[in-house]
Amino acid sequence: FDDPPGLQEKTEFLLREWVQLYHAPSSGRESTKAFSQIVYQMNMQGILKTDDLITRFFRHATQMCVDMCYRTLNDQAAMTPTMVRNKCFRTLDAFVRLIALLVKHSGESPNAVSKINLLNKVLGIVTGVLLQDHEIRKTEFQQLPYHRIFIMLLLELNAPDPVLEAINFQVLTAFCNVLHILRPEKAPAFAYAWLDIVSHRVFIGRMLAVTPQHKGWGPYAQLLIDLFNFLSPFLRNAELAKPITILYRGCLRVLLVLLHDFPEFLCDYHYNFCDVIPPNCIQMRNLVLSAFPRNLPPPDPFAGKLQVDMIPEIRQAPMIQTNYASLIQPPSFKNELDTYLNTRTPVTFVTDLRSTLQASAEPGCRYNIQLMNALVLYVGTEAIAAIQAKGLQPNKQTITHSSHMDIFQSLAVDTDTEGRYLFLNAIANQLRYPNSHTNYFLHLILYLFAEANTPAIQEQITRVLLERLIVNRPHPWGLLITFIELIKNPTFDFWSHEFVHCAPEIEKLFDSVARSCA
Amino acid sequence: PLGRVPMTKEHDYQYQMLQAAFYHMPHPSDSERLRSYLPRNPYPTPPYYPQVPPPGSDSIEFFLKLSVETLFFIFYYMEGTKAQYLAAKALKKQSWRFHTKYMMWFQRHEEPKVITDEFEQGTYVYFDFEKWSQRKKEGFKFEYKFLE
Amino acid sequence: QGSDLTTLGLNLKSPENQYLTFGGAWAETPCRAQDIDFYVPREYLTN
């Protein structure tokens, strides 16, 4: 609105001029000569006079670039996809270079504020044009121009350059903000391009390896959570049509790279990720839970006579980046929980647990999964602290007869199949590499098996473990250790249970899993 | 035992938009600088052809095994990439030197006749990328200030 | 059963960091040396 007269024409003239200058052999190293010329012309046109004018200029320029791309994409007569792309990128890459140079040279170095303000402004404009386009064109929307602008600007601003290095974390933060605004739930037609940017080797490297003190880990974790949130309803329903499968496989690839190169990142954020990964995405969740710190390689789970309690790291609490205690809502419930944990009263707290955890009557969505996960981890960590406060370590003796165990046994006995499945999953999600949580929760799930008052509970415990074991690798160390203990330790008398022999193929399955574990 | 969750209208809309985008997937080249001289053009070769590069093919050791002509092909046709950088390193290790004034690679053909602080003069071979072959240059003055 | 994650085109046995040659979420193979943009000396841009 209220554009000064002639702004559109001036913008078009300057953009054309710049594209010519950018591609001319005389543009100079990194287009510096061309840039001096265009800045002079922009000054002559009064564009650089105020922030507002610069913003309006970029809005028109972005729109012109996008419109040019749509014309080229829709006029594919006699042009191969490569030719179409070359034509579009010829203008887009020039436009990106102009943005990068204006960002780099705006304000006096090392004054980062004006540079980052301009970058945020331009990214905001491109985002706004994208969302409007996405809204208007709907299934005719094309990701190409926006993807190219974002990815090439990201690469330009991550070039080895002292001025850019000085503002790199703010640049990355600006991109994370934009990518969060453009998360797949908000711009599903941009989802593939979005993941292409998030999974780009330069972006992963900068966010997870180069940025000091792991400052990039939190924002990057948020982007993965955005992806899991989008995929969740489709994966939960196993809606694996090709468009979803491609995105799912892409997600697996990224997680594999993270497992291989940044396992500590997956360790720290496993809780957040498992809170949003659908419970039936067993292999993807195993991938996250299999990560272990590279300086703490777990002992071979299949080596006979492994004494878990003798592993030194088993006493150390793992890093968890989430304040899961604050996820226990409402605050009144958290207060009652703490009161019970400290005083084991009122007894009604335990008997009311199930109703507190229920979210709806809808089968399959009856329980608040996030609350269940947070409750189990919180009570477990409180139990560990209480045991260690007595100078002891969690084992089958020290974990019993406590307010913590009251809660766990009530969740095992009082909930229905759905509720108990989520409860047991919350426990199994802590069976990871050797640490105090793995240690406590493996003793807990085995204790619940031994103390179960019905075979149904024992069967369900077995199911929860087994469904995590029969999927393709990788498998978390704590899961393997737990199952090996269950099938080998005579205390549990595992092989005598009827459900183990309920059908020939199940019996065969147990045999093969037992053999692979043995 | 969780079963399905009811899909909302929002989920249906999201799926429709994702499905439309599925037909405009990004190409790998969309996140690379324009390759004017050797763009990616995937071609369905018979499955028994190696479909991926041999392991270690992006290491200097691999490049050192390549012929000089191959290194020059990589240098001149894959500009601005890691391959060009590795080809240049491999050429230097085989005592080729890049002359920044002529933008060409030279190699001593024999001990130079004249050596001063500014230049060496003698017979060199250079790689002529128009004729795509090595040619001799008698009495060439290789000025150090143009040594990249 | 999930999928065989060793068939997604990543060289998981390699001790090298995979992200340096990661071709992205859709890539069936790692990047080749000629796929990776590199800041070479300006003089190398002979074209």
Q: Give the N-terminus to C-terminus distance of chain A in angstroms.
A: 73 Å
Helices and strands of chain B, in order, run as HHHHEEEEE
So what's the overall shape of chain B? Answer: elongated
| Global morphology of chain A | elongated
Q: Can you characterise this structure?
A:
Chain C: It comes from Amphibalanus amphitrite. Chain C: Belongs to the CNOT2/3/5 family. Chain C: This is CCR4-NOT transcription complex subunit 2. The complex is a heterotrimer of chains A (518), B (148) and C (47). Chain A is mainly α. Helices cover 66% and strands 0% of the residues of chain A. The longest helix of chain A is centred in the N-terminal third of the chain and has 26 residues, at 112-137. Chain A starts with 6 loop residues before the first helix and ends with a helix. The model of chain A has no long low-confidence stretch (mean pLDDT 94). In chain B, strands 1, 2, 3, 4 and 5 form a five-stranded antiparallel sheet that branches. The model of chain B has no long low-confidence stretch (mean pLDDT 92). Chain C is largely without helices or strands. Chain A binds chain B through residues 81-82, 85-86, 89-90, 93, 134, 138-144, 147-148, 151-152, 155, 184-185, 188-193, 196-197, 200, 230, 233-234, 236-237, 239, 241-244, 246-247, 279-280, 362-365, 417-418, 421-422, and chain B through 1-8, 11, 13-22, 24-27, 29-31, 33-34, 39, 41.
Give a topology summary.
The complex is a heterotrimer of chains A (518), B (148) and C (47).
Chain A: H1 7-23, H2 32-44, H3 51-74, H4 81-105, H5 112-137, H6 144-157, H7 162-166, H8 168-181, H9 191-198, H10 201-210, H11 217-236, H12 242-261, H13 263-276, H14 282-289, H15 331-343, H16 347-351, H17 353-357, H18 369-389, H19 403-414, H20 417-428, H21 436-451, H22 455-469, H23 477-488, H24 504-517
Helix pairs in contact in A: 1-2, 1-3, 1-4, 3-4, 3-5, 4-5, 4-6, 5-8, 8-11, 11-12, 11-13, 12-13, 18-19, 18-20, 18-21, 19-20, 20-22, 21-23, 22-23
Chain B: H1 9-22, H2 60-64, H3 68-77, H4 82-93, E1 96-99, E2 104-108, E3 114-115, E4 119-128, E5 133-143
Antiparallel strand pairs in B: 1-2, 2-4, 3-4, 4-5
Chain C: no helix or strand
List keywords for this structure.
heterotrimer, A: 518 residues, mainly alpha, elongated, C: 47 residues, little secondary structure
